[in-house]
Amino acid sequence: MKIFVVNSGSSSLKYQLLDMDSGVVMTTGLVERIGDAMGKVSQKSWPGTEREAEVEREVAFPDHRAAMHTVVELVTGADTGVIASSAEIDAIGHRVVQGGETLFKSTLIDDDVVEKIRENCHLSPLHNPANLVGIEVARELFAGVPQVAVFDTEFHQTMPAEAFMYPIPYELYEELKIRRYGFHGTSHRYVAQQAAAMLGKAEDDVNLVTLHLGNGCSMAAVRGGKCIDTSMGLTPLAGVMMGTRSGDIDPAILPFLMKEKGLSMDEVDSILNKQSGLKGICGMNDMRDIHAAAEKGDKKAALAVDMFVYRIKKYIGAYYAVTGPLDALVFTAGIGENDEIVRARVCANLEHLGISIDPARNAGRKKVATAVQADGSKVAILVIPTNEELAIAKATLSVLK
Ligand code: AMP
């Protein structure tokens, strides 16, 4: 069974071809700068498959259709690909960011599902339209191949109303579906399942706090294997501090800024999404650069790390209060997997909560799932590399079954 996973962004298209029988990733690729004067496609066929090849090409991609055409050519090309024709693809799994309240489970795509994804575009105007383009082009190019939509919001659908409702007039929820949806769900679910396996427990028997810390950051409270709360909200702007996004702030800052600086709503939105977070405090959003600057005495860089860590700690406390006895903290994504400083500082001084990290086990980047808690720590501390493509492929497979 070969599954092709598509993650279509506004100007990019990420893809993977996975052989689900052997568990091998056959091909992984990325098209960048779709719509620009010049774009780029890079593809790697994974070692272990019959033919191995690496391709990198500068090509202009006027739109997603052109990008997908090139991807099909590369994946099936005699010199570049690992399959002879697209007929070898059994199913396609699409990442869709926002399922809203109408699409709460991975689902086989038909015209009705496409329409519902379109209807949810207003809830995720940056992502859903781009996801839709990927779906529409793939349905055209792979006519007859079953296609499945897997939603970022899916894992969070188990949140109770007390967690997903906002304390604003109820009619706004009824009319506009304003509520907490949460994102990165595929990643949170994947690491929660991996954590259960590492702990030797059933998936529905683990209490966890999962920390997806990448350029975008979110946390989830997991009780009995189900998500009961998450830090992102109606949009991916809420929650902990991120690379360029503010996370939680006093909502009254928005009208205050508009009034005091004469800014438009779009300008304020752009400040909070693109010029805030780590970047807003110290001018940089890559944690590696920030650590390096802080080490050289850059006070703003040090403050940015202090704030980043402090805000995560507060969420751990909040979620610990609602998960019940905690089995593990689970770190994942770019910072979670690779940054021993952030992991150590997040876990520091939490011994009173039964959380104690081992400096030697925590040291270094983690390419494989690793337990880093100290002996005697009541709560396990796990670093688990996320694999959203594999999770999408597995979800696709289970829908087809
Ligand atoms: P992601 O969005 O999951 O791809 O994560 C991207 C972020 O991970 C980057 O912006 C960096 O801040 C961070 N990152 C990646 N590698 C490292 C590393 N070795 N040390 C610290 N942070 C890292």
Automatic annotation (TrEMBL):
Keywords linked to the UniProt accession: ATP-binding, Cytoplasm, Kinase, Magnesium, Metal-binding, Nucleotide-binding, Transferase
Binding-site residues, substrate: 95
HAMAP family: Acetate_kinase (MF_00020)
Record Pfam families: Acetate_kinase
Protein name: Acetate kinase
GO cellular component annotations of the record: cytoplasm
Class of enzymatic activity (EC top level): transferase
Reactions it catalyzes: acetate + ATP = acetyl phosphate + ADP
Organism: Desulfomicrobium baculatum (strain DSM 4028 / VKM B-1378 / X)
Presence of keyword Cell membrane: no
Gene: ackA
Gene3D superfamilies, A to Z: 3.30.420.40
Chain positions recorded as Mg(2+) binding sites: 7, 388
